[in-house]
Amino acid sequence: MPSNLAQTHYEKLVEATATERTALLRHPVYGFVGDLASLRIFMEHHVVAVWDFMTLLKSLQRRLTCVDLPWMPSAEPSSARIINEIVLVEESDEVAPGVYRSHFEIYRGAMAEAGASTAGIESVLAKGIESAQVPEVCKLFVRRTFAAADGPVHVTAAAFLMGREDLVPEMFKRMTASLPVDGQENFKFYLQRHIEVDGMNHGPMARRLLESLCGNDSHKWDEATSATRDALEARIMLWDAVKTAIMKKITRTGSPQ
Questions:
Q1: pTM of the entire structure?
Q2: Where does the pLDDT of residue 186 fall: very low under 50, low under 70, confident under 90, or very high at 90 and above?
Q3: pLDDT at 4
Q4: Is 256's pLDDT higher than 90?
Q5: Which 8-state DSSP code applies to residue 184?
Q6: Is the pLDDT score of 3 beyond 70?
Q7: If you compute the radius of gyration of the chain from its CA atoms, what whole number of angstroms results?
Q8: Long-range own/partner contacts, residues 167-175 (CB < 8 A, 24 or more apart)
Q9: How far apart are CA 149 and CA 45, in angstroms?
Q10: Residue 10 to residue 4: CA distance in whole angstroms
Q11: Does residue 70 have a cis peptide bond before it, meaning omega lies within 30 degrees of 0?
Q12: Is the CB of residue 132 less than 8 Å from the CB of residue 124?
């Protein structure tokens, strides 16, 4: 159980990164997905974040549980439980009775429904991010994710919580409000599933994990704060690029369609 001091450190982290968090949650990109052409552009950029999220999660799983042979018991069973519960849903969510999909697979299905190109993300899977045919901003975003995943475990946990699980519900609520009433049911399901799961379960679980990993160590909390700021800035950079791409299309065609 995290100490009261660890909880105080967490609150200070949130306060220290409030400017970046506010900028991200107030970003205009959420209002730019009300037509199909713009939604496609958004998806073709955002899918890399859906994919590289699993790098953060799997990095935590490798270090906080045992995925090697022979199996050895975890030194932190509470942390292992948190990570394994999150992996279960993210990698094999039950989308219908007896039907399981990773959230990445759900997203690719939503892209197909919207008519968005999956060529970029398929090239990521086939060639790796550096050789992939995706916008440069997507490569920059993934590089920063990989750097966080390679950092100390508390740094990875900070990027995972503060750059992903904690923010996703609020980001996706804003996006849901801008989508057309009819159509795009797979994408709406993806958004709503994350609003529910991350808001009620994964976000609070990831906070407990971060507080446990940092404890009362001020240096670790400083590093977690830096990792949080970096993750938020990377997301803002990605959203800026999406907005610019959509605006260019509107300027070129004279219509978002």
A1: 0.94
A2: very high
A3: 78
A4: no
A5: -
A6: no
A7: 18
A8: 167/21, 167/24, 167/25, 167/232, 167/235, 168/194, 168/195, 168/198, 168/203, 169/194, 169/195, 169/198, 169/199, 169/203, 170/25, 171/24, 171/25, 171/30, 174/25, 174/30, 174/31, 175/30, 175/33
A9: 20
A10: 10
A11: yes
A12: yes
Decide: residue 76, CB within 10 A, 0-12 exposed, 13-18 middle, 19+ buried: middle
The residue whose two tokens read 């590089």 is: 143
Retrieve residue 130's tokens: 């550096």
CA distances from 174 to 8, 23, 137, 178 (A): 29, 13, 23, 7
Q: pLDDT for 119-137, tens place per residue? A: 999 999 999 999 999 999 9
- Reported residue count of the chain is 257
Q: Are 152 and 160 in contact (CB under 8 A)?
A: no
* Tokens encoding 144: 């920063």
Reply yes or no on whether the pLDDT at 53 is more than 60: yes
Helix (H) or strand (E) segment spanning residue 248: helix 218-253
Q: How many CB atoms lie within 10 A of CB 191?
A: 21
pLDDT over 60 at 227, yes or no: yes
The amino acid present at 16, given as its one-letter code, is A
